[in-house]
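yo, Aminomethyltransferase is done. seq:
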Amino acid sequence: MEPLSLHFLHEQAGAHFLEVNGREAVADYGEVEAEYRAARQAVALHDATYREALRITGEDRVSFLHGMVTQEVKGLAAGAATYAAMITVKGAMVADARILRREADLLLDVEPGMGAKVQEFLGKFLISEDAELLEATGELGVLRLLGPRTAELLGAVTGGSFAPLAPDATRPLPLAGQEVLAVGRPGQEPGVDLLVPRAGLEAVWKALVAAGGAFGLKPLGWRAQEMLRVEAGVPRYGQDMVDTTIPLEASLTNAISYNKGCYIGQEVIARATFRGHMNRKLAGLLLGNTEAAPGTELKKDGKKVGWVTSVVRSPLKGQMVALGYVHRDHLEPGTVLAVGDGSAEATVAALPFT
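structure:
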């Protein structure tokens, strides 16, 4: 397991750890619901340096990547970011990524454990283009701020004001002697991802923690972040999306451009869009006190109609909630499905739960 760069700081703060696809992450700091409340009501700081990164350089880098992902790349301005999926010729997902266009390269921010897979996938199609794929996980780390007081904290720690960022908008920040790039996060809770040089992670973390006390900051572990993610209805590759998932099944409309021209797998996406429906789609599920495991089947009249992918206890709903795939005939909110082979039931709910 690849340890976090700031493992010793988290250990001092009472952290418990877990493994995510071969990389270490903080599970919690002993108070999961307090961490969750900070992200909802104040501000929370999450070490997401378990994420992996690739850089693409060369004169043809933009045109090459444009033809490899579902989202617009050529139209991205320098400094702008976007969310995209990579899919096979059959339309099945390889991975998802946040793409940042910089002056000299493209940066791909991917889920833990996905860097080598993405590099291999892209490398198969890199033939005569002037482009080079480089591992970049060791160069930058992501520190994530979530909560309504995020902008106040960033203003305080940088000695000025900080206007909230729209999703995928970016802004350079001088922070603790480091050149940091803030990237606006999508989702219902305000937040930013801070892209920090690895050598400066400790200084930036300490500066945010020191200034954050005045704003109710708490460090946020994986478990509380997962509660927020599932409540927001956001699928995660490796958990809710795998290598048989078609992006439209996971409602990744924000990852797809319908005006960009050809890319790998475009024909499948175009046909599915023209048809107007997928056979199954990601849905919310209200479970009451049922703690269903990911992979548990969902049934209607004894017939399998879906399965569970993510399950958390939701403070917002006061019960267990889940994400899962449900056949299109049973997607109406309020539909009751059997969970597994027992008597437990799940009620289909619209996403996001919030």
